[in-house]
Amino acid sequence: MSDEQLQASSQDVERIRDIIFGTQMRSYQQRFEVLQQELARLRQDIENLTERLANQERSQEKKAEALRSEACQATDDLRNELREATQRLSSEKAERIDLGQLLLKIGNHLTEGRSLSDLPENLAEVEHDSKRDG
Predict the structure, then answer these.
(1) Measured between alpha carbons, how far is 48 from 9 in angstroms, rounded to an integer?
(2) Burial of residue 101, with CB atoms counted within 10 A of its CB: 0-12 exposed, 13-18 middle, 19 or more buried
(3) Could you state, in order of their start, the residue ranges of all structural domains in the chain?
(4) What pLDDT digit, counting tens, does each position of 21-41 carry?
(5) Rounded to the nearest 5°, which phi and psi values hold at 115?
(6) Which pTM value belongs to this model?
(7) pLDDT tens for residues 99-128?
(8) How far, in Å, CA of 37 to CA of 33, rounded?
(9) From CA 52, how far away is CA 68, in angstroms rounded?
(10) Could you give the CA distance from residue 81 to residue 120 in angstroms, rounded to a whole number?
(11) What pLDDT was estimated at residue 129?
């Protein structure tokens, strides 16, 4: 066989293969392309979700930091208020009963789980009551 005959024979085999398997191969090719597109869409969705999650995480960190700062400020305010109350009681030479009432009020306030922000008002009430009674 000559080279021309071999080449023609090879082309004939390719045509026969295309006739037999061509439709099936095109179908597989289309499916593959659809799967590639779906995979690309899913990758984009994952990237979007990852970015949203990172944004939420940053937002939550900022909120947590703000809450920590607020809690520290409230604690500092409470300490200052207690120092002032203690100094007032010391300078007024408070009686043991007044001091006991103050400590009971603070203990009740903490036991009831109430906000620390309204404690100074309650302390002022105790001071007012003790002056009125005394």
Answers:
(1) 54
(2) middle
(3) 3-133
(4) 777 888 888 999 999 999 999
(5) -65, 145
(6) 0.42
(7) 788 788 888 878 887 776 766 776 666 556
(8) 6
(9) 24
(10) 7
(11) 60
